[in-house]
Amino acid sequence: MTERRFGAHVEVRWHGQKGSVAELVLDRPQAMNAISTDMARALGDACAALAAARSISVVVLTSTSERAFCVGADLRERNSLTDTDLARQRPYMRALYGGVLELPMPTVAAVHGFALGGGYELALACDVIVADTTAVVGLPEVSVGLVPGGGGTQLLPRRVGAARAAHLIFTARRVPAQEALALGLIDAVADEGGDRTDALTLAARMATHSPVGLRAAKLALRQGRGVDLRTGLDIEDAAWHAAAFSGDRAEGVAAFNERRTPDWPGE
């Protein structure tokens, strides 16, 4: 495993012989990974680097804090910001959440403890959310005079429906893991302390498959949201063409017929 740091509070770790799984680590445990301006910049930079790395098949978002995945924006820092400072911070926050959302490969969030506000929005920006039994998720921004600003008002309705999302956002509810699973706020519940292990295991399983296929499938899934069926099928057809005429497709078919494990070229 190799590592690279982005600023003081963000780290990327590569797993596997070819580094096909990248772990994006939130590393500000003393503040339960509250996102400061500097941390937002670093996360945005890390996402840009991951997006450009063709060797990565899956990204897993994890936390070094024992108490939280991420508690959202650093409200202590916010308390000292002028309106001008807050406006200047906003592009870094948008770049951070957009960076996670727009990663071209599948993404898995490993959640434990508190994942609130912008912290839960980081998880929502991922394709799959694995949480352990200690997880508590929610979007409580209205309780401090804000609205979810990291994609929550758009991503949560796409997960759970408009009415349920409105109820959760307007009440600022904090939802424990088992209820969150039942409501569709998360996708799987691990034993206490097992969220990272389960998420990395899931990512490793995904990474055995074609990198081209994974990225094309994600593109079709994401671009197909909210469009009519005809448009969605056209999006799917474009993704199919991208995969069907790739080196990965040729290798996958050959490996199937030769009864061996594919050696994906990833192009």
Automatic annotation (TrEMBL):
EC number in record: 4.2.1.17
One annotated GO molecular function: enoyl-CoA hydratase activity
InterPro entries linked: ClpP/crotonase-like_dom_sf, Enoyl-CoA_hyd/isom_CS, Enoyl-CoA_hydra/iso, Enoyl-CoA_hydra_C
One Pfam family cited in the UniProt record for this chain: ECH_1
UniProt catalytic activity: a (3S)-3-hydroxyacyl-CoA = a (2E)-enoyl-CoA + H2O; a 4-saturated-(3S)-3-hydroxyacyl-CoA = a (3E)-enoyl-CoA + H2O
Alphabetical UniProt keywords: Lipid metabolism, Lyase
Enzyme class (EC, first level): lyase
A single GO BP: fatty acid beta-oxidation
Family: Belongs to the enoyl-CoA hydratase/isomerase family.
Protein name, as recorded: enoyl-CoA hydratase
